[in-house]
Amino acid sequence: MKGHSGFSVKTFFLILAFFFICCEKKEVHSYEKPLFSIQSVLKDEYLGLFFLDKKMGYFHGAAYSVAMGGKKGYYLSGDAVIKIEAEQEKVYTILKEEILLDENFKTVYFNYSQKIGDTSLNIVAKKQGNEYALKSISAGREEESTLSGEFLPLSAAGFIVWKKGIEENRRYEFKVFVEAMQKTENLTITVGKKEKDKDVYVYPLHQKLGNIEITSYVLENGDTYKEESIQGFTMRAMKKEEAIKFDEKAPTFYDLFSFTVIPVDVEIKDNISELVLLASGFDEKVKIPESEYQKVEKVEGGYKISVSATPVSKGGLVNLDRYLVKTMKIQKDAKEIKDLAKKLTKDGKDNKEKASIIVDWVNKNIKKRLKDNNTALDVLITREGECESHAMLVTAMLRSIDIPAKIVGGIVYSREHKGFLYHAWNEVWVDNHFLPVDATFGEFPAKPYHIKLTEENNMEDIIFFLGKTKIKILAGSGLYGLLPK
User: Fold this and answer.
1) pTM for the full model?
2) Domain check: are 155 and 61 in the same one?
3) How confident is the model at residue 217 (pLDDT cuts 50, 70, 90)?
4) In which domain, by residue range, is 71 found?
5) Does one domain contain both 206 and 299?
6) In terms of domains, do 225 and 120 share one?
7) Fewer CB within 10 Å: C terminus or N terminus of the chain?
8) How far apart are the first and last CA of the chain?
């Protein structure tokens, strides 16, 4: 719901899937929207969404003062439509949200829905005493949970900044629920010094969500002016008539895909056993993780990353409990998931063999399709999805039989595209270490052309690499072509 927070487009385009929040099952709650009456309109604005100057959608946000239960409050509503051409068809993403805040800007209720192609997600939350009852609906299944403590839907934060005042150097701190990614996170917004852009004066809003930083610009009256992203996305304030119009030819999946390919001059064979490369160009605020199979060293010109098909070091102490939990995305306790995992692995002699059976089953039974799924159960029901869908289902199935597993993200080599592509796979705890495995490619273990850049607790950090990372192959077994000097 743009116009209330500059992170709305980031929430959607990080690419709609990678995040987690732990929940506890509770008794059934009421999710009816509280009654209220609108008193006045406070804001109503439209923004056009562009990718590399191609119009692909719009965001609309509005805010109202309301009377609710004999007290004052605020009602925020938003909607967005985004169009991408993929696989010779137009894929529409439709986002809708409504939020109720009390007079002290505390969350009373919110209802968020997203539809991407034929996949949908709906999340409803309502204050119940000292906690929030939360219901998510995906693939026709309902899950009820609770969230403790106060939080704001992400989309409400920018409205509160506007309502409290756009003042230079003023800093705001929020605990927010990132609706599209089903995750709580800390958000800070700092108002910068007023500056002139063309013929108007604007205030920069420097926002930090977890490790992600972005700057949007608002006019002196608080209306959103623009947001520009180094990832190629731009939003601009527009009149309604302009905003809701789409270019005749929307950006294609190929446009987005080409933006993320990292080309290299050396061909890597499938039987590679080790790979050494130099990664550069990305924001160095993010730390590239190491593992028993991957070592990272800061060198002149970037980071030297060495990946091996066999462990090159011993890992430290690991809290395995965090890789056994259920989440809104990883429903390890769902009967369908538990029953299937037990049935498939009943004859497995140890955890390594059981993990291999599950990875192989997901590889052979989940159709590879450019389709986002919201949960592991969605993947099992639809039997199709992209790489992150495969990784979600593997994680849920392994955790359901008490084998620690996690989703990781990074880049993987593609001979077809002569470079590295962004990808998601798994690490599973066997033989006292995390073994990389890839259900999308059917690799157990995953081959050392998988370069891990993010882990489950910070998957959103992948945006630090998108569109910026450069790779130079330094050494390795199984290479064709001349190594660059």
Assistant:
1) 0.74
2) yes
3) very high
4) 8-253
5) no
6) yes
7) C
8) 48
